[in-house]
């Protein structure tokens, strides 16, 4: 059985590695060999990334102990699973910044483990924030007996989840602008061996406030770095072995993340889920966001691994063939066949919408996920229907 994207859906016996309660004792020898060869490739790839990471020699900033002597705390602007974000004002420079305040003690977690997690977040953020205008600037880190204070650049345009809730689904062009910026951010992180780990609309913010943000996204006047990644709480350094600790928001997690054996490619699946949500205003597996929120972790896991990905309704009927092709390349359940960030940046979807304005010139190499077709005016060609029927 296959889904709408041509992914082979696992049978019940194949769920042993991912769904509690299932057992499987009959994995074929060919499957074991194929998996072993894939793991060798992954180990080699990630080892190369680890070497690049070591060569950087970037260390986290020294933690200071006088946050309230340097900064005045301002209005509350956001909350997360464990902490809150406020505006703060530097008493010396009078410049505004954002501060993420995180407790050192959390329920059901040893203080030492919490501190290691906070240190990892700051270290990885410091590693990549200097290399991309799309990653919020890390200014300083403070701590006292109870809290860690991460001072960052202030973004005032709101996050993408807020925009989605306020204005509804994005147009294809606005989505393309967002996904392109996200891919640039992801590519910087991956080049430095850093998995973002929690890619979703709530973790990307517009740098500036706009009167009509969706209309602004459709224009080509926003410039570099109009979108910033603001949360590295689930980020991880990728080494020579697969990652096993599940992190992130379940509905955006990749199939291999649920299997506890994943690498950098997991971020691209999450971006595909985000792309789907921005265009459709919902997730593939449920008709509304509210339905998703009521599902248990096991139900979400089964849906991500087994359910098909519908593109035969509503907004998908007018999405370009190139848009469907990119979505398929991201939402490919086999991570060895999924597009990388660099490959996705070269996708014809961006050329269609932005032409020569895209920073990365289109390469002569074509997407190998589905046959691409010449661009045509939106909604006037049967080519999208042909591709859609191929996917289905």
Structure description:
A hairpin with a 3-residue loop joins strand 4 and strand 5. The longest helix has 28 residues, at 29-56. A five-stranded antiparallel β-sheet has the order 1-2-3-5-4. A two-stranded antiparallel ribbon has the order 6-9. The protein has a two-stranded antiparallel sheet with strand order 7-8. It has two domains: 67-152, Phosphorylase Kinase, domain 1 (2-Layer Sandwich); 160-391, Transferase(Phosphotransferase), domain 1 (Orthogonal Bundle), CATH 1.10.510.10. The chain has helices spanning 29-56, 67-70, 111-129, 160-167, 172-191, 213-218, 255-258, 266-280, 289-293, 297-306, 321-330, 341-345, 348-354, 383-391; strands at residues 71-79, 84-90, 96-103, 138-143, 147-152, 194-195, 204-206, 227-229, 236-237. It is globular. With 392 residues, the protein is of the alpha+beta class.
Total domain units: 2
- What shape does the CA trace take? globular
Looking at the overall shape, the CATH architecture of the largest domain is Orthogonal Bundle
What is the overall number of helices?
14
Integer-rounded radius of gyration: 21 Å
The rounded distance between the terminal residues' Cα atoms is: 12 Å
> How many individual β-strands?
9
CATH superfamily of the largest domain: Transferase(Phosphotransferase) domain 1
Mean pLDDT: 79
Q: What percentage of amino acids are in beta strands? A: 5-15%
Question: Which fold name is given in CATH as the topology of the largest domain?
Answer: Transferase(Phosphotransferase), domain 1
Overall helicity: 25-40%
Helices and strands, in order, run as HHEEEHEEHHEEHEEHHHHHHHH
Give the class from helix and strand content and strand pairing. alpha+beta
CATH class of the largest domain: Mainly Alpha
Low-confidence stretches: 12-58, 360-392
